[in-house]
Amino acid sequence: MTRILGFWRSVVGKKVVMGATGLIMIGFVVVHMLGNLQAFLGSEKLNAYGALLHGPLHEVTLLLRGVLLAAVVLHIVAAVQLTLLDRAARPVGYARKVPQAATPASRTLRLGGVLLLAFIVFHLLHFTTGQVHPEFIPGDVYHNLVSGLSRPLVALFYIVSMLALGLHLYHGAWASLRSLGAAQPAPSPLHRPVARVLAVVVWLGFTIVPVAVLLGWLA
Questions:
Q1: Which is more confidently placed, 33 or 19?
Q2: Which of 153, 36, 129 lies closest to 121, judged by CA?
Q3: Is 176 exposed, middle or buried (0-12, 13-18, 19+ CB in 10 A)?
Q4: Domain 2-214 carries which CATH code?
Q5: How crowded is residue 180: how many other Cβ atoms within 10 Å of its Cβ?
Q6: SS3 label, residue 190
Q7: How confident is the model over 100-125, as pLDDT tens digits?
């Protein structure tokens, strides 16, 4: 236990935790995206998928949710602590900023993380518990999806949040692998083809759903 705590308290340990939990969340996001895309196969297909998760696979679903919740909490705590350590090590900014290779993803990482946290809370209340979904029907996943995203402001919030997710994935996927020693520093932040493809696919896979609802493709 002492070694575990010592590892957690170190900067390297926090970065490794962020990398490992980041990969867990990436895996969940990809599976969740594939599940959502079944909406294009019709209401029966999507509802059958939802029934499977809450029926025969209910215990597995609960276990995975527990692992995901732990990963999210550890990821956020490590991120906050690393930010505080970074600021404590350099309380006064450089007199002259040294140009560094950066991308919109890296520059908006922390702000995007806060937006995604707010989105996760809203998403759970919207589609899981239905507390902020006026037309929520337990068990009717397709109806909840279409009726929930038919409201332009809600759909816009989802679309903006998915843009933040894509940017977060672009930087986070590569950073996670680097923290775990599976990727080497790149001479240019744009030379990350795997992270770029993953970010675009996930962003598109999630964004196409609210767009399809607004355009009447899903009804």
A1: 33
A2: 129
A3: buried
A4: 1.20.1300.10
A5: 15
A6: coil
A7: 456 666 677 788 889 999 999 999 99
> What pLDDT sits at residue 108?
74
User: In this structure, what are the phi and psi dihedrals at residue 6, rounded to the nearest 5 degrees?
Assistant: -65, -40
- Helix, strand, or coil (residue 113): helix
Q: Kindly report the CA angle at 38 between 202 and 199, in degrees rounded to 5?
A: 5
- Please tell me the pTM assigned to this model: 0.84
